[in-house]
């Protein structure tokens, strides 16, 4: 048996090793910023500091007294990436390239000057914000789960320990399982993966289930398109997930755990694998948790590309080496789960919240959020907004604050602000619904969203401007769920197919009003009769867009016109004779030979031949082609 | 001779997982990493070694989109069609890249086996939409031109290596 880990000694050693570091440069190394070239920025910092004969620490293994350069998980401000934060003053620079590094070192690391051109400037007010905590994007958020994600080095277990990490699991090791469960029930924490089931109750069921073996599974199969909250936590603070799993294991009496990570997240897989290995080497995972008689170890498994595996029974089938198809409940996994044994499956964000609750205490935790939904929720904020990124807000926050104060307002296609541009927000991905102007001041929590036919879901939030065709969005989500329907139950397999066909007909101008009625009828059937959550929630985007944007559907069907001009098949092109000079540029570009006319005389488009590609509109220098 | 060598690698992978049927997915993943796809003979081999049916192995391999039963190009280009990328016109990127590589309808791999072009549900790079990956390397905030430029760079590099 390995020796119990001494957390205090490790924390002390880390603090000792880092106490003389003059400044720390933290470069965001989340997937988004890496795509923007963040790794080259890190290398450049190392290079230029060394070139000046100064000492630079990339990892902390011994006492350091120079400068520290580290990568972090997602700092949240993805649109402006790669972002660099300089501690202790927390100066944040945006869109940093290797060419800026020399200047940053000279001005802001060796001296205390601010480089104005790299500072974030809010478009609406023109005001600049050099300090991270003063930026409207961060000021309006409440960071609990994301607190460490953007700061710590996710590859260094000692930094996590120095900030109090694993101390909560050590505390839990001295508690009785029923005590842990009742603490969780008291906290009011609900599952963050979509369904919102109280975590404490889930644990308590599994605790009471009889079994010689029990399992904990971390669901990191975040499949909703447009959502990346869990990937950010796995990349940025993987040890918090392990600590959450350890506490869950003690609560139910499990000795084995799995982390199931989506294969499309290679960086998350790498970071969580490395974190598990570090925790095993430190003696935190293994035969004995903190000297107790409780063993716990974790295996990391990569998914293989199936959205339905986010559903817990399908995920279990996948871990067992089978096709990821869901099975009817009951029996619930807490009775008969992985390999037939009692199993708890929690989402990444839920698990990462657990050490936070233990540290704060339930009373403090419950002060955040609303009475029915305690705590905070991560959202990935994307689409037509000025600042896309990863955010964490308390439950009960309004959409208005999120869209206008945090995200900085709605934008046009070209990125320019569009003050009256707000049309809708799609929340909860393909299982969720849309929120419109009238919901801007509604508090966001489980109950309010459910009441209007949407759901918190995993937390994807896509903002759409006035130029987005809502029918096309509904069709897009239906295409996604249709593709991902596993095919086990007929209503989901065939129902989503028929719904997709009708939606395609609508966007192509072939549908009739009877088909619209059929679409609604089908939606009701699929919602009621599907086996699992995928099918049950698949009609949500259709139903909620129909509720708020029925006019747009009708316009597509009866008017054969897409009000936003996005549906290619419903466009019609014509030439404004008063503007056309007869240069023939459009006719030469037309792939269908649909444009004819004499030289220097106005041309015409033959609607019968036109394939609506828009090449003529692009070719015309005089704005004579009308859509 | 080459065939025996080919099976040997797969054998080592199966041995590493102790012939455990529950490890079928990681086994297939490692085999695919090694061979770039899952040839039919290998799936039959895996089934025999694990003591299961080849229909079970084929069922699993064809269920998950990550597995491929056909040989792919040296560079796999995945264009993201997640919600965020979709509303930022990622399908125009797809058209531009496919057109540049002269891929015809129903064809996803170039005849020289250099490129395979696919779409993917969401890469989690939504903050920098629209995005694509080339063999796992992520490119974000793309336009039709910059996406094609990425492909052109690879083509030039390949050309240079060839000469």
Offer a few descriptive terms.
heterodimer; A: 627 residues; alpha/beta; Glutaredoxin; Rossmann fold; Ubiquitin-like (UB roll); five-stranded mixed β-sheet; globular; B: 163 residues; Arc Repressor Mutant, subunit A; 2 domains; four-stranded mixed β-sheet; 4 strands; elongated
Give the secondary structure arrangement, pairings included.
The complex is a heterodimer of chains A (627) and B (163).
Chain A: H1 7-18, E1 23-28, H2 31-35, H3 38-51, E2 56-57, E3 67-72, E4 84-87, E5 91-93, H4 98-110, E6 120-121, E7 128-129, H5 136-139, H6 157-162, H7 167-173, H8 177-187, H9 199-208, E8 215-220, H10 229-236, H11 238-252, E9 256-261, H12 266-281, E10 297-302, H13 312-319, E11 343-347, H14 348-360, H15 362-366, E12 376-383, E13 389-394, H16 399-406, E14 422-427, E15 433-436, H17 446-451, E16 460-465, H18 470-484, H19 490-507, H20 513-529, H21 533-537, H22 540-557, E17 574-575, H23 585-589, E18 595-596, E19 604-605, H24 615-619, E20 625-626
Parallel strand pairs in A: 1-3, 2-3, 8-9, 8-11, 9-10, 12-16
Antiparallel strand pairs in A: 1-4, 4-5, 6-7, 12-13, 14-15, 14-16, 17-20, 18-19
Chain B: H1 2-16, H2 24-35, H3 40-50, H4 54-63, E1 75-80, H5 83-87, H6 90-100, E2 115-120, E3 132-134, E4 137-139, H7 144-162
Parallel strand pairs in B: 1-2
Antiparallel strand pairs in B: 1-3, 3-4
Helix pairs in contact in B: 1-2, 1-3, 3-4, 6-7
């Amino acid at each position: 048996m390995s020796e119990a880990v001494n957390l205090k000694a490790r924390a002390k050693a880390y603090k000792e090793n880092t106490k003389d570091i003059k400044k720390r440069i933290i470069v965001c190394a989340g997937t988004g910023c890496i795509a923007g070239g963040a790794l080259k920025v890190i290398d450049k910092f190392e290079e230029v500091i060394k070139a000046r004969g100064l000492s630079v620490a990339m990892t902390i293994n011994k006492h350091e007294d120079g400068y520290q350069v580290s990568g972090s998980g997602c700092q949240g401000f993805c649109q402006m990436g790669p972002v660099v934060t300089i501690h202790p003053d927390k100066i944040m620079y945006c869109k940093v390239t290797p060419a800026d590094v020399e200047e940053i070192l000279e001005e802001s690391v060796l001296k205390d000057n601010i480089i104005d051109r790299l500072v974030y400037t809010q478009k609406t007010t023109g005001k600049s914000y050099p300090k991270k905590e003063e930026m409207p994007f961060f000021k309006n958020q409440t960071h609990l789960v994301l607190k460490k994600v953007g700061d710590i080095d996710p590859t260094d277990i000692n930094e996590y320990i120095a900030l109090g990490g694993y101390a909560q699991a050590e505390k839990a090791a001295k508690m009785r399982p029923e005590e842990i469960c009742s603490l969780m029930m008291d906290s009011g924490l609900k599952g963050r993966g979509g369904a919102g089931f109280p975590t404490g109750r889930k644990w308590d069921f599994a605790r009471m289930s009889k079994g010689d073996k029990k399992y904990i599974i971390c669901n990191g199969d975040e499949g909703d398109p447009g959502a990346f909250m869990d990937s950010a936590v796995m990349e940025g603070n993987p040890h918090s997930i392990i600590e959450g799993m350890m506490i869950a294991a003690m609560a139910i009496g499990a000795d084995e755990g799995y982390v199931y990570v989506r294969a499309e997240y290679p960086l998350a897989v790498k970071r969580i694998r490395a974190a598990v290995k570090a925790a095993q080497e430190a003696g935190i995972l293994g035969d004995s948790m903190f000297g107790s008689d409780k063993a716990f170890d974790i295996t990391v498994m990569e998914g293989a590309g199936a959205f339905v595996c986010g559903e817990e029974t399908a995920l279990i089938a996948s871990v067992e080496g089978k096709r990821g198809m869901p099975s009817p409940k009951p029996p619930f996994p807490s009775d008969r789960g992985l390999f037939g044994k009692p199993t708890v499956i929690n989402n990444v964000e839920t698990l990462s919240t657990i050490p936070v609750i233990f540290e704060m205490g339930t009373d403090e935790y419950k002060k955040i959020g609303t009475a029915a939904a305690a705590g905070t929720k991560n959202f990935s904020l994307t689409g037509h907004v000025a600042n896309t990124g990863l955010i964490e807000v308390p439950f009960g926050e309004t959409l208005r604050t999120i869209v206008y104060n945090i995200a900085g307002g709605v934008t046009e296609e070209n990125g320019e602000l569009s003050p009256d541009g707000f049309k809708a927000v799609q929340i909860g991905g393909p299982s969720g619904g849309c929120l419109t102007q009238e919901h801007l001041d509604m508090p966001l929590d489980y109950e309010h969203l459910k009441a209007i036919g949407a759901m918190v879901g995993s937390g994807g939030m896509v903002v759409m401007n006035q130029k987005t065709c809502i029918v096309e969005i509904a069709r897009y989500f239906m295409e996604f769920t249709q593709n991902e329907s596993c095919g086990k139950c007929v209503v989901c397999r065939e129902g989503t197919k028929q719904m997709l066909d009708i939606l395609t007909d609508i966007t192509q101008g072939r549908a009739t009003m009877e088909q619209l009625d059929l679409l609604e009828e089908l939606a009701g059937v699929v919602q009621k009769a599907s086996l699992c959550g995928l099918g049950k929630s698949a009609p949500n985007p259709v139903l909620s867009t129909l509720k708020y944007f029925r006019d747009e559907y009708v316009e597509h069907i009866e008017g054969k016109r897409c009000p936003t001009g996005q549906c290619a098949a419903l466009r019609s092109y014509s030439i404004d004779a008063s503007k056309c000079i007869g240069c023939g540029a459009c006719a030469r570009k037309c792939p269908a030979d649909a444009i004819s006319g004499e030289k220097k005389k106005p041309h015409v488009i033959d609607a019968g031949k036109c394939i609506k590609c828009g090449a003529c509109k692009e070719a015309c220098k005089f704005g004579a082609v009308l859509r | 001779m080459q065939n025996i060598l080919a099976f040997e690698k797969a054998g080592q992978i199966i041995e590493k997982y102790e012939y455990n049927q529950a490890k079928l997915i990681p086994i297939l993943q490692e085999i695919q990493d090694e061979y770039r796809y899952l040839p039919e003979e290998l799936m039959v081999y895996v089934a025999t070694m694990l003591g299961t049916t080849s229909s079970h192995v084929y069922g699993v391999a064809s269920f998950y989109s990550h597995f491929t039963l056909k040989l792919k190009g040296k560079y796999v280009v995945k264009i993201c069609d997640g919600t965020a990328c979709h509303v930022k016109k990622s399908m125009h990127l797809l058209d531009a890249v496919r057109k540049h590589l002269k891929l015809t309808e129903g064809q996803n791999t170039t005849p020289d086996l250099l490129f395979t072009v696919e779409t993917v549900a969401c890469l989690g790079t939504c903050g920098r939409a629209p995005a694509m990956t080339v063999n796992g390397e992520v490119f974000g905030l793309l336009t039709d031109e910059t996406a094609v430029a990425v492909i052109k760079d690879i083509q030039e590099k390949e050309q240079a290596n060839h000469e």
